[in-house]
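name: query_chain
kind: protein
chains: 1
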Amino acid sequence: MPDGPRHAAWRERDGFYPYSGPPEHVEVYPEHRRGALRMTEVRFPSLVPSGHAQNDTARARLFRHRERSPGQPIVFLHGFGQSWLWLWESFAMTLAARGFPTLLVCLPYLCERSVPEFPHGSAYSSTDASVALPAYEQAVADTRAALDWLLSSDEGAPVPGRPGPAILGVSLGAMVGIIAAALDRRFESVVAVLGGGDLHVIVFQGSLRTIVERQLEDRNVTVERRRAARETYRRYLDDVRHAGHPLDVSPAHAYFLFDPLTFAWHLRSRPVLMLNARVDPIIPRPATLQLWNELGQPPISWLWGTHWAGGPWKPYVMRRITGFLRDLEPGETRVPADSSATIDLDETV
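structure:
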């Protein structure tokens, strides 16, 4: 899996996931009332632009109760699935109604930021790391910029005795959220819904296998090369665990830098909650367990369903998330049990 020239040139942490925030200019739109809630939309130029005009305007919507919100602010990152940001608003509105001001961030290449060149956010799933890594870098930078604005707002400003901001992600949003939290310690807690780690397992045990294998064959990436890369990743993860920062270790392949496992170890001193589906065709159970183990085995709840946290599962998901956030106490370092990369190579190629 060839890496781009930028990867070959940079060997220090500042070469990846750049962030120059806060954004210099944020456009704040007039407030709208939604029953007992207030909604404010903000837009700002992406701090890691892709060159696609539609994609390079970051968007977010803040929902909060008309009265003062007692709960900590939440940055909410959506998943693939639905194609318009307003379809994810019900999740943010439910959290806001329960006292948690929630900033719903539109991820690059998705919803109102989609572009014809990468339909349905396909940049994230590209087998070319020089395409996928910049998409993740842009998503993380825009998330951190959104946090900057949230903390400057009345609802997000620090309050004595109130926990600091949480990051909550669903599916792709969970993966981006783990990376963002590991790189930005202002996120004091993490909620990962339908998330997983170890891209090798997600791809080759999940529903994307046929599509990705065809792409890899077209690029002459053989099974032997995949096995060698996986063994290299095992050694790389061990080095990352002993590093002071997840980007201090030079990766052999750029795709190591958008696998949540690379960053998970560095969240083991913060409160984390995972919610996952027992029969998930997109994030297979082994990928969930890999991430859970690397995070230090935090609390995890299993839904009796597939890759969806809405519908009949939504009330339970919301109760579990808000209960977790209300009961937060300073985290104790969790000690992961053994290496995350424990699956036999032959089972995943």
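note: Residues 277 and 303 are 5 Å apart (CA to CA).
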